[in-house]
Specification:
The protein is of the alpha/beta class and about 350 residues long. The chain has two domains: about 160 residues, D-Maltodextrin-Binding Protein, domain 2 (3-Layer(aba) Sandwich), CATH 3.40.190; about 80 residues, Periplasmic binding protein-like II (D-Maltodextrin-Binding Protein, domain 2, 3-Layer(aba) Sandwich), CATH 3.40.190.10. About 40% of the residues lie in helices and about 15% in strands. It contains twelve helices and twelve strands. The strands form three sheets. Strands 1, 2, 3, 4, 5 and 11 form a six-stranded mixed sheet that branches. A four-stranded mixed sheet has the order 9-6-10-12. Helix 6 links the parallel strand 7 and strand 8. The chain starts with a strand and ends in a 9-residue tail after the last helix.
């Protein structure tokens, strides 16, 4: 972050050359590899935003929308440089750099943040949400705000909730019900505890693999299937090796747009007010982009030969019953939170 013409005192700016490892801890960053717009206005602050997805991905587009809004609303006095394609590191490292103040903003999966907030685990429980509308009623209301507050003291300041779609199972051989999944070898994320427990409770065996290794593992038969959203499934062409997509919609893992607390504390209140408001607007924009991308991804995958297999409510009930031990475990400590989430299950978006 660079300061010009400000009464507040900051550390001397440091320069990050393009291609240097993102593990460096820096307090201020000059625009060496970000996308900076030429302007007649000299910004008071130049801030960095790390994004691990490609330039055309909804979360990256949401980040750029956020940056443009902040620039507009501050008259160019706050400039945010968005670095896509993991130029500043993967999700885990960018979170830690945010904590240290080396990066000002980033967007991460909630699953990456569970070590900083135990309550955030609750928001990822399988079959927790009736549908997308239910999830947004939870996240955009008091519950979402309360969970954001649990990050106080971690060095992270949450700004808004981003969408990452809904996850379902896809397999090499056809699976249309819970019984078909039993005994299958299903890939799970290496550090994702709840998905691992869920897969085991559903009767399948878990295989921890990095995302980049899933295609080859499906190809060789090391795994029988995996689980992810339509966009990731289509983008990585997993439909070529696992053409059966069971739309069980077992998990919605929200994502957080976050800010370094050290940066937030240094900025004047008038700029922080703008940043918070623009973050909320960018979240709504990102959700629209995500819905559009997910719809198109499903269409492309089906056209390429994937079979989308719907799951009846009767069969989905069997899935929910199978994962009930997870709820029993979390109910002991977070029963009130679960009750609040469940109370919003059948409430319409208009509150009727």
């Amino acid at each position: 972050m660079r300061q010009q013409k400000s009464k507040r005192q900051f550390k001397k700016p440091q320069v990050l050359a393009a291609g240097i490892c993102a593990g460096l801890s820096l307090c201020l960053l000059l625009p060496a590899c970000g996308q900076r717009q030429e302007s007649a206005v000299t910004p008071d602050y130049v801030l960095t935003y790390a994004e691990n997805q490609t330039k055309d991905y909804p979360t990256t587009q949401g980040a750029q929308y956020f940056a443009d809004l902040v620039s507009k609303e501050t008259g160019g006095k706050v400039e945010i440089l968005v670095y896509p394609d993991a130029k500043l590191g993967d999700e885990v490292s960018t979170v830690e750099q945010c904590v240290l103040g080396g990066i000002d903003f980033t967007r991460v999966s909630l699953s990456t943040m569970t070590d900083k907030s135990a309550e955030s685990n609750v928001l990822m429980l399988p079959f927790l949400y009736q549908d997308a509308d239910h999830m947004w009623r939870v996240l955009d209301g008091d519950i979402g705000s309360d969970v954001m507050k649990t990050f106080d003291g971690t060095g992270i300041t949450p700004l808004s909730w981003y969408d990452a779609g809904v996850r379902s199972f896809y397999t090499r051989t056809r699976a249309s019900c819970l019984a078909d999944l039993k005994g299958m070898k299903i890939r799970v994320q290496p550090s994702a505890e709840i998905p691992e427990q869920m897969v085991s409770l559903l009767g399948a065996s878990t295989v921890k693999l990095d995302y980049s290794d899933v295609y080859s593992a499906l190809q060789t038969g090391r795994i029988d299937g995996a689980e992810n959203n339509w966009s990731s499934y289509e983008a990585m062409q997993h439909y070529e090796m696992a053409p059966y997509y069971l739309e069980d919609e077992h998990m919605r893992i929200p994502e957080l747009q976050i800010m370094s607390t050290s940066t937030a504390q240094k900025l004047p209140d008038k700029y922080m007010d703008v940043i918070r408001e623009c973050a909320k607007k960018s979240a709504l924009h990102e959700r629209e982009l995500w819905t559009e991308r997910e719809t198109k991804a499903k269409e492309r995958a089906v056209k390429a030969g994937c079979e989308a297999i719907p799951l009846s409510e009767e069969e989905k009930t069997k899935f929910r019953q199978a994962v009930q031990p997870l709820y029993d475990e979390y109910d002991a400590s977070y029963g009130d939170l679960l009750a609040r989430i469940n109370a919003l299950r059948y409430v319409s978006s208009t509150g009727e």
